[in-house]
C-alpha cells in the first residue's frame, strides 16, 4: 500500500504525465485519480503506456534511455534490499527489457516500440511496482493459464475482477460476523 501512495505522491508533485483537473493546486481530483488507477492497473493499455512513458522520459525527448530507466530502478533496488530480496543488477534488467520489447534501436526505447509489444506493461512494473515485478518474475502457472484461456481480458479487467471478488468476500465475512442471514440464537443473548 505504501508503494501506491508513493506513486500518487510522485505523480502529484510533478504532474508530468498529466496535468491535474482539480481546482486545488497540487492535489489530485477524482478524474485524476481514476486516470492514475487505470494507468497503474493496466500499464499495457494505450493511456497507461503514455502515462508511464511520460514519467520515465525525464528530458521529454520521446526516448527512454538506459540512464532514465536506471534512475527509477535505483528505488526498486532499495526496496528489494529493505524486503531482504536478492537485488538484481540493472544491467541484467536492461537486457531483459531490451529482449522483452525488441526496440528498433537498442540504445533507447520509444513509445512506438512499447505500443508494439504485448509485454510492455511489465517494463513499467519493473521500474515502479516491485510487487508486480516480483509476481512477473515468479509467474504462477495458474495465472498464465488463465491469461491464455481468456486473452481478451485486459489487466484492468483482471484487476476489477479480483477486486470485485475480494470486496464480495469481505462483505460475506461482514454479514456472517453481524449475524445477518443466520437464525438468531436466543441462548447467546445477554441475561439482562
Strand content: under 5%
Secondary-structure-based class equals mainly alpha
- Could you name the ranges where pLDDT drops below 50 across 5 or more consecutive residues? 1-13
Helical residues, percent: 55-70%
Describe the global form: globular
Task: Describe it.
- The protein is mainly alpha-helical and 192 residues long.
- It has helices spanning 2-14, 30-41, 46-56, 66-82, 90-101, 111-115, 120-128, 130-137, 141-149, 155-178.
- 20% of the residues are buried.
Sum up the structure in keywords.
about 190 residues; disordered N terminus; about 0% strand; mainly alpha
Quick rundown:
Helices cover 62% and strands 0% of the residues.
Question: Topology, please?
Answer:
Layout lengths: L1 H13 L15 H12 L4 H11 L9 H17 L7 H12 L9 H5 L4 H9 L1 H8 L3 H9 L5 H24 L14
Amino acid at each position: 500500500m505504501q508503494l501506491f501512495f508513493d506513486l500518487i505522491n510522485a505523480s502529484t508533485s510533478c504532474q508530468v504525465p498529466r496535468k491535474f483537473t482539480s481546482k486545488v493546486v497540487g492535489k489530485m481530483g477524482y478524474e485524476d485519480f481514476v486516470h492514475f488507477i487505470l494507468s497503474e492497473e493496466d500499464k499495457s493499455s494505450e493511456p497507461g503506456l503514455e502515462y508511464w512513458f511520460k514519467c520515465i522520459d525525464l528530458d521529454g525527448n520521446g526516448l527512454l534511455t538506459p540512464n532514465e530507466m536506471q534512475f527509477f530502478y535505483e528505488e526498486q533496488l532499495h526496496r528489494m534490499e529493505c524486503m531482504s530480496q536478492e537485488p538484481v543488477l540493472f544491467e541484467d534488467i536492461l537486457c531483459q527489457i531490451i529482449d522483452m520489447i525488441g526496440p528498433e534501436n537498442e540504445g533507447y526505447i520509444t513509445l512506438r516500440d512499447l505500443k508494439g509489444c504485448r509485454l510492455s506493461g511489465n517494463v513499467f512494473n519493473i521500474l515502479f511496482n516491485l510487487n508486480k515485478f516480483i509476481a512477473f518474475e515468479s509467474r504462477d502457472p495458474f495465472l498464465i493459464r488463465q491469461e491464455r484461456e481468456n486473452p481478451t481480458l485486459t489487466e484492468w479487467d483482471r484487476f476489477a475482477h479480483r477486486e470485485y471478488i475480494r470486496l464480495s468476500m469481505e462483505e460475506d465475512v461482514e454479514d456472517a460476523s453481524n449475524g445477518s442471514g443466520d437464525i438468531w440464537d436466543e441462548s447467546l443473548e445477554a441475561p439482562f
